[in-house]
């Protein structure tokens, strides 16, 4: 016997994605143009990073729209896992982009190009406004791994762009050109650091690991303490999407219950309220030794 909890699809953040994509794409063109004209690797590095963010915003937005589609045919859960794949793709995209920047920066350390510090500063100042403003559009969706990925990308951009501004001022007043490739390495380091959490979360979600916010042993203790329940086995908790958690479990109730539907309703409601589990499926068993459950063993998945 089973019971399920379904909830409405998460917010799409459609307007935020449109605004973020347009303004960041315009800034990428501006930054890349002045980076080429001035010979600034720092500006080109930041432009490359921002270009990857534009692509990542497209991917995240597309995944959000797919996740809202209803189940059909073979996709009995719909496309709820699309944002998980988008988060993993975006993390890998950033790693590749930063690897190229590091390679170029190392080669430029020994032969830095002459730069205009003023140009670097003012172009970066525009980027700081664009990155900060668009990041704030996603600030309210940080509980969603997919939206948090977009938010962290843009927030990291704002911090990196602030660093580019500082380097522009230092180059302007000191004339030390190697600060530009050195800053590019710093940019790559900051981005890689900020990306690690997203990468780890996306990998864990892709492997159906129980979300860190779920107290798995607490869930087991709660189910075991339900009226008439003698034992619990085949308990699984995994991310159904970046915003929904699913659970399945077998409950052994040898003496049976007079109102099984009421018990299931109570259990699923409290699993949601206590642990944030939106989709629970529970199977009731009598524990008949003549017909044991094939999934009762601890080593059985």
Cα-atom radius of gyration? 25 Å
- Overall structural domain count: 2
The N- and C-terminal alpha carbons lie at a distance of 19 Å
Shape: elongated
What percent of the residues sit in helical stretches (DSSP H or I)?
A: 55-70%
Determine the strand fraction and express it as a percent band: 5-15%
CATH homologous superfamily annotation of the largest domain: Cation efflux protein transmembrane domain
| Low-confidence region ranges | 1-9
CATH class of the largest domain: Mainly Alpha
What's the CATH topology name of the largest domain?
Answer: Alpha-lytic protease prodomain-like
As laid out across the biggest beta sheet, the strand order is: 1-2-3
Structural class: mainly alpha
| Oligomer category | single chain
Largest sheet: 3 strands, mixed
Pattern of helices and strands: HHHHHHHEEHE
Tally of individual helices = 8
Mean pLDDT: 79
């Amino acid at each position: 016997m089973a019971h399920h909890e379904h909830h409405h699809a998460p917010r799409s953040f459609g307007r935020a994605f449109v605004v973020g994509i347009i303004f960041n794409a315009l800034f990428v063109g501006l930054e890349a143009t002045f980076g080429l004209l001035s010979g600034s690797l720092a500006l080109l590095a930041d432009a490359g990073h921002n270009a990857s963010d534009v692509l990542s915003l497209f991917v995240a937005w597309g995944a959000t729209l797919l996740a809202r589609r209803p189940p059909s045919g073979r996709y009995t859960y719909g496309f709820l896992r699309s944002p998980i794949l988008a988060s993993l793709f975006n993390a890998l995209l950033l790693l590749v982009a930063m690897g190229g920047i590091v390679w170029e920066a190392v080669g430029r350390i020994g032969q830095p190009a002459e730069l205009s510090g003023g140009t670097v500063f003012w172009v970066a100042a525009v980027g700081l406004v664009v990155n900060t403003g668009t990041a704030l559009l996603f600030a309210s969706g940080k509980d969603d791994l997919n939206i948090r990925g977009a938010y962290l990308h843009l927030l990291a951009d704002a911090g990196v762009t602030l660093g580019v501004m500082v380097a522009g001022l230092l180059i302007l007043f000191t004339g030390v050109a190697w600060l530009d490739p050195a800053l590019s390495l710093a940019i790559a380091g900051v981005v890689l650091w900020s990306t690690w959490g997203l990468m780890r979360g996306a990998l864990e979600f892709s492997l159906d690991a129980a979300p860190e916010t779920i107290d798995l042993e607490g869930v087991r203790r709660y189910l075991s303490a339900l009226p008439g329940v003698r034992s619990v086995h085949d308990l699984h908790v995994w991310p159904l999407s970046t915003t929904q958690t699913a659970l399945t479990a077998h409950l052994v109730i040898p003496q049976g219950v007079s109102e099984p539907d009421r018990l299931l309703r109570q259990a699923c409601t409290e699993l949601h309220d206590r642990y944030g589990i939106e989709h629970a499926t529970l199977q009731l068993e009598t524990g008949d030794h003549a017909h044991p459950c094939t999934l009762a063993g601890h080593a059985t998945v």
